[in-house]
Input
Amino acid sequence: MVIIVGAGPIGLATAIELKRNNIPTKIIERGCLVNSIFHYPKDMTFFSTSERLEIGDVPFISHNPKPTRREALEYYRRAAESYDLDIHLYEEVQDISGQDQSFMVQTDRDSYEASKVVVATGFYDVPKMMNIPGEELDKVRHYYDEAHAYAWQDVLVIGGGNSAVDAALETYRTNANVTLAVRDSQIKESVKYWVKPDIQNRIKNGEITGYFNTEVKEIRKQEVVLDTPNGTKTIANDFVLAMTGYKPNFELMTGFGIDLTDDKDKMPVFDENTLETNRKGMYVAGVVCGGMDTSKLFIENTRIHAKHIANDIKHKLS
Output
């Protein structure tokens, strides 16, 4: 039995490849199926085309040039159903003891024996905190859902990437008074090409107020303090959407006995050919492999991890 921790697209893809090789597999997920995608904004459109998000040779048919969040959720449900995968949802892995060929996976519900373990937990569960006064206030959100709640409110959006730009544009179009604070000198180059001109024009026209080379210094109940190139500025505020990014659960990985690189990226230590970590018999898969560098690995370029892992496990079990 192989236990996969995480029911994201790459966890599902790995389970499919193992099943194709007649290797019993169980997926354990602390949230819902493809939990990260579920928590994307409701109206989000992927950057990738649908065929680049496919797993297990299950066709992903989208009604749009770029698939939507809703279409992706339906697709991954169908992929899991097509292979009749054994998935335990809303069950959290707490500890993994034992060794290669004889692991014991302890969850908040039960314990399972496993010959191998694959950690495919992604990086969307832990937001990058700003560690500034007022960040703990209820009006501060590190996840953006939809725009309606912010109609006619003073909204500060923090960040210059896709999430921040989408949040700024959508809340602006529900008549929110939107301010965008960006640490860098410009919107990130990685922002979706069909969205970037929109945010640039909204800022140019003064419809969204943009502050660049700017840090948020403090968040208060009815205002925020910005550190701008022109000095400190205090503005009225009802909500803060801190789209500052996310990171892997490093405590979880180190608790599983996976070493991390001693640099800013804190990547898990693993064999690039097999994805096996320093803990023999335990593998990593998907975007979690990038550590803090969350901009280089995506569903489309980590799908190959599934075959690498399945091939290595098949070889070693045989």
Remarks:
- The first strand starts at residue 2 and ends at 5.
- Residues 57 and 113 are 30 Å apart (CA to CA).
